[in-house]
């Protein structure tokens, strides 16, 4: 048998799976894959999983170090990519998983719930510490929205729409934390509530969140199929004068997600074709438009172009897209900080460490709770720690302390 240091990733997965007595169907179920997929990866018939799926596998197998799977000898904590546990995660989880069979003593009106949800979305987009702020708001909002949706009455359909929106908001809080089961839970519940509301727009918004969950699990074809289906169901409405702009906005956001998935799988032509379809919606909606849930807008379409260039490993295209607009035009503070990380990734592909450091520092100062939960950013910081730009070792150390990356 090969020495352990030379085992391919598939065989390493098999070794650790068998060590803990886990079957192929169980591992597949934990990461959203089939038994056949696991078997094909382990025996080398499928190419090695990409980073997001490797992180899921490592979590499912109880591994703390990605080097246990990659075998490269360079210790990389799983938590660096899976994210750290936010202080309020337990409270949000409790609100999601407790079931009250007895109706509450009082019921919040759907009008009041709708206003609380609108305020929570506003807080999410304008706060640099958006996870902390959502951690305060979400537990009670989830409980009240769930109670309203279960109650009988004329407002139940509206309550279901609000609950679907609350699950969509919770998805942003839970993303990149070590709780993948909760991400799937809110995505699935959001889809269910959207379908029960019988509102094509709410269904499309819930589908957008589910597409992201499927994408990050490496279920590319399912993600594209769902996004395409949800968008196609909205398209017949968008030429009507009475249709709200947000219906067009969610179609554009779904097309942008299709572009992202294609880029993740290296399909250059398909990625840019989907981006162009999304961009046409952004042009139609104009420079002042922004979709609250997805941040779909003219400037964010340029940010998407940066990400496509990075994912397709064409940093020149990514940096050209970044230079076409001012990042300050991105209204959502967390989304703006994420864009800076994406531009830093493009510079990292070109080994331009000074630019990487400057952009990551700017991202942290823009929204500290975005970079703390971004695995790509933490990986780049570790690279900077290993090879800091000339004369900037202390600057790198300061950024690493602020982000929570150990030396």
Give me some keywords for this one.
mainly alpha; 407 residues; 0% strand; single chain
Structure description:
There is one protein chain. The protein is mainly α and 407 residues long. The chain has helices at residues 9-19, 24-31, 35-42, 51-60, 67-70, 78-82, 89-97, 110-126, 130-150, 156-174, 180-197, 200-216, 220-234, 245-264, 268-285, 298-311, 315-322, 333-349, 353-366, 368-371, 375-386, 393-403. Helix 2 (24-31) crosses helix 3, helix 10 (156-174) packs antiparallel against helix 11 (180-197) and helix 16 runs parallel beside helix 18. The longest helix has 21 residues, at 130-150. It is globular. The relative contact order is 0.07. The mean pLDDT is 91.
List the helices and strands and how they pair.
Elements: H1 9-19, H2 24-31, H3 35-42, H4 51-60, H5 67-70, H6 78-82, H7 89-97, H8 110-126, H9 130-150, H10 156-174, H11 180-197, H12 200-216, H13 220-234, H14 245-264, H15 268-285, H16 298-311, H17 315-322, H18 333-349, H19 353-366, H20 368-371, H21 375-386, H22 393-403
Helix pairs in contact: 2-3, 7-9, 8-9, 8-10, 9-10, 10-11, 10-12, 11-12, 12-13, 12-14, 13-14, 14-15, 14-16, 15-16, 16-17, 16-18, 17-18, 18-19, 19-21, 19-22, 21-22
